[in-house]
């Protein structure tokens, strides 16, 4: 049998799960159900089907280090094949990129493409269905998994099955794809008994899906191929040429290939699946108390029913609520009708239009070397708490518009400032003048914590020139 290559698509945003999910730290990186992050859950499902060294993870350049850290916690070998898109160009581009990458590295590769931000409560059902999917794929079919619907949900596309495939019990031809339908049509589709939710998971050989792109979306395949011509060998992450990749047409794989192909099969599947695309869908998959409530964190409820409450930094108390979602983070509080996904998305768009940082970033921002939190910011100054992991190092860098004052509050810091390098211990400090090359390192075995005070005409995060960086970032 051909080599099974899991392809984890890990580049989404999940704006309907704001304020917990944000562009810089989106939902696939979050622990929403208590079983590790959604990405780590997806990686464990992949590991049950194939060696970690066979898995390809497609993410964006901005999320690469965060994704890599979480994958390594599941199995170090997941780091072997991480593909970093310079920017998201939708799922057709990501699949074409993974297929071309796999073709050059695995003999007779069969790809199992799966979003990395879904919940699967019965993974054993997926494992059982995979043999039928692989058998159909190895005949040249493009295979999708259809989720047995539990409600007439208007938020999903539907797949209508046709005749059973010869010699493959449980697999059917696809009669048609149905766009997200209005409520009355969704009810008819579910009642018919031959329609399924479109899961966004696929199985096909690399050769078959590349041929399908050549037939139905040659512009996407050619543009991705051109971007790969400028890629760097077998380096990790595998990076494509940014300018060329920006020219790739942005389409979902369903629109670009699946709905245009004639040899498409569907495997019906009941595996406790959810795309966790909203707070309401998270409420549906989580364990509830006797009153139908989901309480995560320090939560106290009184006279409240069918409500999701998530507290991340303080006590959240609710009384007399019905069918709401209440989500508290360090810098934002959301109170919404549990069913009003569109309203939450509209709020995020308004935040972006107003250039509010709450739309994209949390107060605590993670970096390859650790994290930082903005404690206070005003005109011409910013105060941060910076945590550097043991053995980690920030880049050798310089700022045009600000000076920095560092005070060590825990651990030991190795400071480079101009031509001088020295160690600082707790309660010691140093000053970094404007325009001076400098670096912060943690030579110890415990975390380093410092307070940084920035002063200057501009204290934005983009005022940085990097001269050396162990993580390959550019300034």
Search tags:
about 475 residues; alpha/beta; Spore Coat Polysaccharide Biosynthesis Protein SpsA, Chain A; Jelly Rolls; 3 domains; six-stranded antiparallel β-sheet; five-stranded mixed barrel; about 35% strand
Can you walk me through this structure?
By secondary structure, the chain is an alpha/beta fold. It folds into three domains: 3-274, Spore Coat Polysaccharide Biosynthesis Protein SpsA, Chain A, CATH 3.90.550.10; 289-353, no CATH class; 364-468, Jelly Rolls (Sandwich). The protein has eleven helices and 29 strands. The chain has helices at 38-47, 64-74, 90-103, 123-137, 183-192, 206-216, 218-229, 242-245, 253-256, 279-285, 341-353; strands at 3-10, 56-60, 82-85, 109-115, 119-120, 142-147, 158-164, 172-178, 195-205, 238-239, 264-269, 273-274, 294-296, 299-302, 308-311, 316-319, 324-328, 333-337, 364-367, 370-378, 381-388, 396-398, 402-410, 413-417, 420-424, 429-432, 438-441, 448-456, 465-468. A six-stranded antiparallel β-sheet has the order 19-20-21-28-23-26, with no helix packed on it. Strands 6-9-7-8-11 form a five-stranded mixed β-barrel. It has a four-stranded mixed β-sheet with strand order 13-15-17-18, covered by helices on one side. Strand 19 and strand 20 form a beta hairpin. It is globular and about 75 Å long. The two termini are 46 Å apart.
